[in-house]
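Q: Now give one record:
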Amino acid sequence: MQHVLEQLVLPDRYERLREHLGDDVANLLVQPSKGNVDALKTLSDEIKSRREGILVPLSGQTGIGKTTFAMNASQWVPGAFTQSLQYEGALEFDALSTAVKNFARLFPANNTKIIPINIDHRENNPPSDSELAALKRFLRTNAAGVPVILFWPETDPNIADSLADRYVGIAGEASVKLPIQCEGPLRETWQDIAKHTLYLSNNVNHLEVLGVDPADYSPDEFQTLGGFLRKIARDFNQIVQQMKSELEQPVSVVIVFPSESSAPGVLTQITTPAKYGLLDAHSLISVTPQSVIGKWWDQRRGLLTRTIVQLSASALCLPPTTAASCIRNFSEDMQLFDDAGYRRYGAARGIRDLLRSDLGKFLTNAPLSRFEARGTPGDEATAAFQLLAETGFNLGRDKKLNNIMANGIDNLLKDANLQFSRITSEEKLPFCPLIPDNAIYFQDRVQCIEYTWRKGDFLASSNRSTVAQYILSKLQNYARELGWASE
């Protein structure tokens, strides 16, 4: 349940991208220059024919893509290389041999691919004569049973040239001229790379409308892709910090739909798949483009994305299995259920059923990737919810239900040992005019919950526009009360 604003990042270096995305970083890779790829192909052929490794200095200024090139050789020449080893130890024969043997255990015993090794911790600190001799010996021994290619990224062109000359002097000429001059992806790809990086790093669509659109930055003004990304990242981080500081206390909102719907239904069409429940601005508008509220937001798409991000705005289903259990087990005064023989088991049963719902998981930070409904038998719970719906949810009746839900959530969070100061129902926030149905005061933020109690299978596809309009209207109210929209 971490706020989206706390998750937004835009890494501007390969190392940070790799840490953040893991193997998904491969989705951001763009082919380096044809000359660089051709040189790598030629070197792989030479290594295979000679059956011994080679040292390859990589020359280029910071941000040109040296690390990306070295760490993804298997992408540039498919079938020739294994994944790359990032080596940061001593440049000694035994240390290098041990490291590559341990790394080789990741691969099949009959591996015949070349192992790339990246020496990325010695920029501007070239190897001594004894270290260079150890590297030469290591490259000729094939410690893991296969040869390696040893990349040495270097920002100083003089050091790169000198290292290449020294290595050629003791090992002989290579099939390509060393050092390799890293050129990186073509400039015309930089804007798309930045936009794709923004999306993949956050799994939130259309973040560029917050005010940092890579299309507004000219690649010609930057010497390297790294410099281009760093400028965008600084501006993006500045906007995120500004958004965080605009509220006296961070606010999140989740819109909950208790109804006879046992699955999220149309909510899956208006939320972000990668962040379960998080609303998607463009999908919301596309579902109801001709409605009054849809047209209002269509003129303010940037504001809608900002509102969703700044409020970490989500939408969840509360099925009758959970809703009926909460109303029954967290309230001692429910004559309707007493008359119908719908048994009250107590708070423990209510906690169990609430915890099994998307809302319960959302509030307790449990893994939440798909809808799950278990607990009180579905037919009994649905019948009980139908009885409740027949009495109607207007004329203030929903306020009593919201109060019961606050009591249930209080029990749930205490049972999960989560720290919070208080939970309110139908009470104004102390720092703005908003009056959420429930508000949970955590140490670092306020989690608002807005319920819309509905009769029937409300999340069915036939209600798609109605659901979207309700959400958009609720977000409009929040944006106005928080001073983000004046109209």
